[in-house]
């Protein structure tokens, strides 16, 4: 398989870090961190592979623009973009009517506007045939919607809508856009009771990301299409 140029947001821990480790064995990978020190530590710990980092806060346009300029020193085009960076403020038992606007706006800024900002800044570097994978969540699935975690749920449902819209708009440029749920994964966000290790989840994500018949405008988990 031809080596791809891949950009992953939030690559210093959790699912993003797992993607960096797996993909950098065979591909050129640039990942983002908020803290330079964490970028250095990640590079040292994964050792001897094709990966580098840029400092980027997906909640700040200026930070994204500076990072993308730096990234162009490593690679002049991007074949696969993973919008992975995200937050979950633990509000599992907080009813919608008691959720603060601050919580909703903060989560929306990172989980929904973050991917849009990154795509706006990077899409001009994406050639025909390139792929965008937004990491969403089953908690944003309308079909299975439950109570609690209003801010997180809204942010991921909106990310799914953004995915669908972009999959239509970017089809003219032959760029495919999908949104995926990684499963329940043992990370700082998912907690230690989660059903999947980072390795188990990211192996499935990588298989999907590199598959020949890549879909467009779908919501998937482990390569299986989910209802919205
Ligand atoms: N774990 C699960 O079970 C699960 C399930 C469904 C969906 N997901 C989704 O999968 C993605 C990754 O989750 P995870 O479990 O790996 O989470 P995690 O371990 O908490 O890691 C989150 C990553 O996002 C970065 N990040 C947070 N805010 C950012 C910002 N403003 N700008 C740039 N980077 C930022 C963090 O950087 P810092 O280290 O600097 O904070 C970190 O690298 C998220 O989108 C999440 O919603 C996870």
Would you kindly provide a written description of the structure presented here, covering whatever features stand out?
It is a single chain. The protein has one domain (about 5-225): NAD(P)-binding Rossmann-like Domain (Rossmann fold, 3-Layer(aba) Sandwich). About 40% of the residues lie in helices and about 15% in strands. The protein is of the alpha/beta class and about 230 residues long. β6, α7 (about 200-210) and β7 (about 220) form a beta-alpha-beta unit. Strands 3-2-1-4-5-6-7-8 form an eight-stranded mixed sheet, sandwiched between helices. It contains seven helices and eight strands. It has helices at about 15-25, 35-45, 60-75, 100-110, 115-120, 150-170, 200-210, and strands spanning about 5-10, 30-35, 50-55, 80-85, 130-135, 175-180, 220, 225. The structure holds NADP nicotinamide-adenine-dinucleotide phosphate. NADP nicotinamide-adenine-dinucleotide phosphate binds near residues 16, 59, 84, 88 and 182.
Write the layout of secondary structure elements.
Elements: E1 5-8, H1 14-23, E2 28-33, H2 36-46, E3 51-55, H3 61-74, E4 80-83, H4 101-111, H5 113-122, E5 131-135, H6 150-169, E6 176-181, H7 198-210, E7 219-221, E8 224-225
Parallel strand pairs: 1-2, 1-4, 2-3, 4-5, 5-6, 6-7
Antiparallel strand pairs: 7-8
This protein binds NADP nicotinamide-adenine-dinucleotide phosphate.
Residues 9-10, 12-16, 32, 34-35, 38, 56-59, 84-88, 110, 135, 137, 181-182, 184-185, 187-190, 194 line the site of NADP nicotinamide-adenine-dinucleotide phosphate (NAP).
């Amino acid at each position: 398989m031809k080596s791809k140029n891949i950009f992953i947001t939030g690559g210093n821990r959790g699912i993003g870090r797992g993607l960096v480790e797996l993909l950098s064995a065979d591909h050129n990978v640039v990942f983002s961190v908020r803290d330079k020190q964490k970028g250095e530590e990640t590079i040292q710990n994964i050792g001897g592979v094709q990966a580098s980092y840029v400092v980027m806060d997906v909640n700040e346009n200026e930070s994204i623009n500076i990072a993308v300029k730096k990234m162009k020193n490593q690679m002049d085009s991007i074949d696969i973009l993973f919008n992975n960076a995200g937050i979950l403020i633990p509000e599992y038992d907080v009813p919608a009517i008691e959720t603060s606007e601050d919580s909703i706006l903060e989560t929306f800024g990172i989980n929904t506007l973050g991917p849009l900002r990154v795509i706006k800044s990077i899409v001009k570097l994406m050639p025909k045939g390139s792929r965008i994978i937004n990491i969403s969540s089953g908690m944003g699935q309308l079909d299975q919607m439950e109570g609690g975690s209003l801010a997180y749920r809204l942010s991921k449902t909106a990310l799914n809508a953004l995915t669908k819209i972009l999959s239509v708009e970017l089809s003219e440029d032959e760029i495919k856009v999908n949104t995926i749920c990684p499963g329940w994964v043992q990370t700082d966000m998912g907690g230690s009771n989660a059903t999947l290790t980072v390795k188990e989840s990211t192996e499935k994500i990588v298989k999907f990301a590199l598959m020949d018949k890549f879909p467009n405008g779908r919501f998937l988990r482990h390569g299986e299409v989910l209802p919205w």
